Automatic annotation (TrEMBL):
The lineage of its organism: Bacteria, Bacillati, Bacillota, Bacilli, Bacillales. PANTHER family: HTH-TYPE TRANSCRIPTIONAL REGULATOR TRMBL2. InterPro entries: TrmB-like, Tscrpt_reg_TrmB_C, Tscrpt_reg_TrmB_N, WH-like_DNA-bd_sf, WH_DNA-bd_sf. Residues 102-220 form the Transcription regulator TrmB C-terminal domain. This is TrmB family transcriptional regulator.
Amino acid sequence: MLQKFGFTQYESQVYEAIMAQDEPLDATTIVGASNVPKAKIYEVLNRLIDKGIVLTTMDGKKKLYMAVDLQTVIHKIKLDFENDIEALKQYKIKRTFTDEHIWTLKDESSIASNIEQLLEEADSSILFLAWNESMERYRELLEKKERQGVYVEVLAVGGLESSLTRQYSLIPLLDAPEPSQLLIVDHMYLLFAGVEHESWKAIKTMSKPIVKAMTDYFYHDVALTQITKKYGEQLLQDEEMERLLTRLIY
């Protein structure tokens, strides 16, 4: 059973041999009880000591060994496994190539998971445009990334209460269309999502021309937000400007 958790066959045999006895054993006795070759016994014992499941002491000139009880070993294996899982979650594999493909996503939960993953992996910058209901879902994560030193800039349609340094809130002057989400991470990764026929759909890409174009789109909307905030009422009094505004997403 121990071999299923990363122990070698010899390690398992030695542990079982020591555990089966009520008293400490010396190396010679362990060789006979475990059927592990004498030439290997000290190497195996030292590994078990390093793993924390065998104890050792000196009795005069003789070195004795005793096994940690099985329930403690099980607890240790469980803790080590949980720690390894946490370490694996934090591990990042950086792409060494540029993927020019445009990938499609069609499920709302899958889109949300991809957005969360991209946010978690952001190293230098995050540009995020979304309706406030969607933005609120990631607010704490966005605030955490900013505290970690990542440049975060968001545009929330409908407003957002947060501690973010660079945030813009747009209250639409006209009837807003279906919600959408635009995320650009590290100037490399892009995800754009929208609602079509009452279902969320998205594209995800590293294509440089698309990332650049959508970055311009993001800042176009930031500029439009600030202009609308300052001059919205005046602009809507002009028929031509009102017609142009109705052709934009806001």
